[in-house]
Amino acid sequence: MRKVFKSGFAFFIMSTYDVLGNIAIVKFKRGAKKNEKVGFAKKILGDYKSVKTVLEKSRKFHGRLRTLSTKYVLGEKTKEALYRENGCEFRFNVETCYFSPRLANERLQIAKMVGEGESVLVLFAGVAPFSIVIAKTGKPSKVVSVELGKECSKYALENVKRNKVNVEVVQGDVRRVLPRMKEKFDRIVMARPNLKDDFLDVSFPKCKKGGMIHYYGFYDEDKLDELRELIYHEAQKAGRKVKILAVSKAGDVGIRKYRYRADIKILN
Predict the structure, then answer these.
(1) From CA 39, how far away is CA 60, in angstroms rounded?
(2) What band does 138 get if pLDDT is binned at 50, 70 and 90?
(3) Beta strand spans in 99-150 (E)
(4) Mean pLDDT across 18-39
(5) At 15, is the pLDDT very low, low, confident or very high (cuts 50, 70, 90)?
(6) How many C-beta atoms lie closer than 10 Å to residue 158's C-beta?
(7) How far is 207 from 190, CA to CA, in rounded Å?
(8) Contact (Cβ atoms closer than 8 angstroms) between residue 179 and residue 202
(9) Rounded average pLDDT over 48-70
């Protein structure tokens, strides 16, 4: 959401901001002064009844756990959000737990694809938004939610109880957890962050014949062939025959760079 804020005789165009329930996180234009930030924060508090705290995004998401650094601007001094979407409720710390409200529609789309009685594995699950929306919206027989971060896993357990759904939360590294799993799943959601490791080599063996994998990758829009080549190459190495049914944009992450979702059918 791009906003224009008037202060004195000047206009200051603010960068995008996200509203996560009671917290708004703003990335201010470089050079914005403190009084300008406070003024814009007051406007947000006035525009959104649910927002009680305004934070400034002081550093991009970083590290394997995609943590965030923020600075307090105005309102209640808290970094714990209570966010609602798709009939579900999620509590989490905005700095220690990666969460994108911009993926709300994406989560619902995936949930609607899940057939009755399916077993679903969600990797890089965070505080369990994909897992819980799937469990709440569809009628899966089982949902397993795997997340590396201990803090995120703690909130995931709380959110599972809060939403009264049947989701098994597993805390651990995908590379270590998956090889120990004996069962295979009808559907795997790979909601991976922007990392070099694609994790397809450990994911392909855990999907049933006829099952689906939803793989998320980050690419420039003119380099989608690299995504397709990667998937077919890793499938061949894993001894799986696959078909990419569709590749869809699932949000922008930069100038002409997007998060893409590849829907992969497992044929053998």
Answers:
(1) 23
(2) confident
(3) 119-123, 142-147
(4) 93
(5) low
(6) 16
(7) 12
(8) yes
(9) 84
Distances (CA, A) of 37 to 1, 19, 74, 78: 16, 16, 9, 18
Three-state secondary structure string covering 32-95: CCHHHHHHHHHHHHHHCCCCCEEEEEEEEEECCCCEEEEEEEEECCCCEEEEEECCEEEEEECC
Using DSSP's 3-state secondary structure scheme, residue 118 falls into coil
Cα gap 59→177, rounded to integer Å: 31
Domains and CATH numbers, the chain: 3-78 (3.30.300.110), 99-266 (3.40.50.150)
Closest CA to 241 of 265, 257, 263, 207: 265
pLDDT of residue 4: 41
**Region 34-60 average pLDDT:** 93
Confidence of residue 8 (pLDDT cuts 50, 70, 90): very low
User: H/E element holding 236?
Assistant: helix 224-237
SS3 category, 232 = helix
Provide mean pLDDT across the span 54-75: 84
